[in-house]
Design goal:
Number of helices: 14
Strand order of the largest sheet: 4-7-10-3-11
Order of helices and strands: EEHEHEHEEHEHEEEHHEHEHHEHHHH
CATH superfamily of the largest domain: P-loop containing nucleotide triphosphate hydrolases
Largest sheet: 5 strands, parallel
Strand content: 5-15%
């Protein structure tokens, strides 16, 4: 079976095939190497940080699947989705009669995950009581079912994930400092999509293949103007947002090439807005249909972008890095736009 560049072979977990972490950007290459290294180690606690939609769950599953625990259970619980009292029962289990409605003994997720992995997603959402209980669990590796005096032990790998910098939560008094430091044994940071350069195209190609197979669509490529928008857009929802956008297009639209008219107006508007920076004055180019009769949206946008880039390069004496910073772009993204607009010759 052939594999795309920038991805490792799929792996099997609990009888299901999962795709590996996809991407060619240096940060993703390093991320895959770190995940593999941690998976081969005997680490018992791992903290994953990443913005919403970056793939924290994928990284957690990859860690489990590449480890010696892969044959055992991967147990996931979303700390933000379950109230504290119910979360305690889900994790630790309970004895019959421990509380109203406890009609029989129930094994908790910690028991189910024997020899496997427990993934605590959005751990910052734990209430203070559960934070204390999780700290004790991580320190002692022992716990009790609710209503029981018998202590049980666990040898599971604990993976916690958050989309917020926990140190900020500690400083704000919303997260225990001792639990924060306990979680800091091994940290893995997932880069946001906006910092991954051409990976947005690698991911788009793979996602289109997936959605074409599911929905019977035939999209195979992005038009150049769409590629430019994808490079300039900040992707606040990261890979999840890209995936949702492409799936919606595959469901609702027809054709083989994704063009500007397939994209929501919000994305077009925000992508155009990234070229405007407080350190650069708006160019003396009237980018409006009233002042440019007959010009379409793509033409107006290109004119405005060209004027912005030319002014930034002039202001910063032709220094690509400083001009990119002034425009709020990466050096790679600015170079990409200049090549597209004919402002830079291909080497």
């Amino acid at each position: 079976m052939a594999h795309m560049p920038g991805s490792a072979a799929p792996y099997i977990m609990n009888g299901t095939t999962y795709s590996e972490i996809i991407g060619e950007h240096e940060s993703i290459v390093q991320l895959r190497a770190l995940v593999s290294k941690v998976a081969r180690s005997r680490a018992g606690i791992v903290l994953i940080y990443g913005e919403t939609g970056t793939g924290k769950g994928l990284v957690a599953r990859s860690l489990h699947a590449q480890s010696s625990r892969a044959r055992n259970n991967f147990t996931e619980i979303n700390c933000a989705a379950i109230p504290g009292a119910l979360l305690e029962s889900e994790l630790f289990g309970h004895e019959r009669g421990a509380f109203t409605g406890a009609v029989q003994r129930k094994e908790g997720l910690l028991e189910i995950a024997r020899g496997g992995t427990v993934f605590l997603d959005e751990i910052r959402e734990l209430d203070p009581v559960m934070q204390a209980k999780i700290l004790t669990l991580l320190d002692t590796r022992r716990f009790r079912r609710i209503g029981s005096v018998q202590e049980l032990s666990t040898d599971a790998l604990f993976i916690a994930a958050t989309n917020k910098i926990l140190l900020g939560e500690v400083q704000a008094g919303r997260f225990r400092d001792d639990l924060y430091y306990r979680l800091q044994v091994v940290s893995i940071n997932i880069p946001p999509l906006r910092e991954r350069g051409d990976d947005v195209f690698v991911l788009a190609e793979r996602l289109l293949q997936k959605f074409n197979a599911v929905h019977g669509s035939r999209f195979t490529e992005l038009e150049p103007d769409v590629k430019d928008v994808f490079m300039r857009y900040q992707w606040p929802g990261n890979v999840r947002e890209l995936s949702n956008l492409l799936e919606r297009i595959c469901i609702l639209e027809e054709g083989r090439r994704i063009s500007l008219h397939h994209l929501p107006a919000r994305i077009l508007r925000e992508a155009a807005g990234t070229a405007v920076s407080a350190t650069v004055n708006p160019p003396a180019v009237a980018a409006s249909p009233q002042n440019n009769p007959g010009a379409d949206y793509a033409t107006l946008t290109a004119r405005y972008q060209q004027a912005l880039i030319e002014q930034a390069m002039l202001t910063h004496d032709g220094n690509l890095s400083r001009a990119a910073a002034a425009l709020g772009l990466s050096r790679h993204a600015l170079r990409h736009q200049m090549l597209r607009l004919g402002l830079l010759k291909r080497s």
